[in-house]
């Protein structure tokens, strides 16, 4: 198939910031793009060739959209998987595959997948309802502390709770869930692996993630991670093995814990471009978005090593502000060395909403990290 | 003015490939953009917020378009300058200024500007008509060889002729022109300078240009130029002085000759992002397009040094092919290390038409140069 000069159409489910950055790299290759999103204010509305309004969880919306394209990809996991399966049967190339999405969408199934494939992850117990978790504690088959996670639709800061006593279970929805052993860890790491339909596979360097203590959102991503080489290699091996186990096509971001005795445990995966790879736009030979395109179009994968060290700072809405967004002091941070803001184009801010990110690059990763702190303390995402 | 969250509008005159790459960086900052171009198939049609159809040389088209924006810039010099002057008087920020464009649009006036500002350029004589050039040769006041250049609308490969005997003048249009001394040179160099309304100014490294012998179009751009440091510094000094002499705002690309005795002579300038800066997208801390935006929006300028060495190869239509374009072997070159194609999105190819470019980056500039040759000999821009 000739992506560069024919009637080829690439479909993207979701029109948020990841889609927006993916679209940016499709422009480089002049690939014809169609985007489906439920919001008329989606960041992807411009820069796509066709923007379609529709609910990503609706079978008909996804099916009818998918029938118009040659290759279909996602920028968000919450899409109608039955529609994807039907499209696959009719010959549309769907990356990631419906089967993979079905596994990943459900955290219990995702954990079982790791177990079945001998991939390291923390011990867990599966429950049909949260009420059963309470019973298990009462019967002594489960002990606090542990991490409660709803099986469906669990995202950063939602559907996850650290349970230290039975009373912490109060107020949680009575849904399918898992209780995960609370493993103390030194670092949260991530590795993004790209894999093509032909089976070519390449990994980006291991990155280190620092989380905001309250919002449970990534605050800094540091590339490369400042960890010993053998630990990094272990994390890379796990990530490559995970991508292969899924027989994955496209990007797979594998989030992992580095325990106190340097064990690597998979936390969760995202089958798409990921927040932990944004610094690749400025720091790597190939950005994660270009790499995702190369992978799903079965083109040769690009170099994944870094030109320079990179640190990524998430720009989230400041507490206490809701409404039309203002990026206070943005021109000040643009005066710092190697700083590039990425503004996602959401009109409204609210506390902890992801509004953009800032990349800081430097030959010296410690210098980049230092400037990142200055960026973090200077720019404020507030409202008018 | 708050570019990032208000009703601010940036206007771009011209919707070609330079505009397209400029638009790409406006997405990063979520800047609202309006583009004016005469072709409904312009590469800028997508990725701009508003696309307006209109003739760039038409007073009313440019004036009415400009009245709707806050800052107006160009991606091509051939625009109606009277309209720009009227807009400036009404408070629209026009970068580059109408005065600068008027000087640059006419090659005779451009050369006089260098002379008046003690900027080094080759000796020349100005003529009202080409017929007068012939008379000057007949009278012995001008001797062959020299370079004939039409004063107006001279571009790469057009409006320029090396005159070795009187007969070479035959067929040339009888227009205002200059006869420029033919200076033998070792290298063609270029330096891009960015300057803000506040007067902050930064230069990118000196690049070396290799021209296609027949088409008179740049074939390779090599960054950094492989020349002695003192020669590079001389070229940078000339470029900075030129930008200041114009009191320029935005990018100014200064093309220069390095003579056999290492003199630097200005060939011509372009007051906008330029072909000699495309490798900056992958090789520099700040791309020339981001830097142009920073400059015209009076934001702090970004770092202009390089992360890695970069070579740029122009993708021009192969001889003998016209029609719907095909990029033969594009996936082969994407398998080479550090190679990124940029396809401009023009549907039709014709011999020597600029259809895209390819950037090759590597820590070792000689390695990048080697891969660039492989790229050049592998990819072919042909028609269906």
From TrEMBL, chains A, B:
SUPFAM superfamilies: Glutathione synthetase ATP-binding domain-like, PreATP-grasp domain, Rudiment single hybrid motif
Biochemical pathway: Purine metabolism; IMP biosynthesis via de novo pathway; 5-amino-1-(5-phospho-D-ribosyl)imidazole-4-carboxylate from 5-amino-1-(5-phospho-D-ribosyl)imidazole (N5-CAIR route): step 1/2
Keyword Nucleotide-binding set for record: yes
ATP-grasp domain mapped to chain residues: 111-297
One protein family per Pfam: PurK_C
Binding residues annotated for ATP, in chain numbering: 107, 149, 180-183, 188, 267-268
Entry GO MF terms: 5-(carboxyamino)imidazole ribonucleotide synthase activity
Alphabetized UniProt keyword annotations: ATP-binding, Ligase, Nucleotide-binding, Purine biosynthesis
Function: Catalyzes the ATP-dependent conversion of 5-aminoimidazole ribonucleotide (AIR) and HCO(3)(-) to N5-carboxyaminoimidazole ribonucleotide (N5-CAIR). Catalyzes the ATP-dependent conversion of 5-aminoimidazole ribonucleotide (AIR) and HCO(3)- to N5-carboxyaminoimidazole ribonucleotide (N5-CAIR).
Cross-referenced PANTHER family: PHOSPHORIBOSYLAMINOIMIDAZOLE CARBOXYLASE, PURINE BIOSYNTHESIS PROTEIN 6/7, PUR6/7
Xref: NCBIfam families: PRK06019.1-5, purK
HAMAP family tied to this protein: PurK
Family per similarity comment: Belongs to the PurK/PurT family.
Record-given protein name: N5-carboxyaminoimidazole ribonucleotide synthase
Species per Swiss-Prot/TrEMBL record: Aestuariibaculum lutulentum
Taxon lineage: Bacteria, Pseudomonadati, Bacteroidota, Flavobacteriia, Flavobacteriales
Gene name as annotated: purK
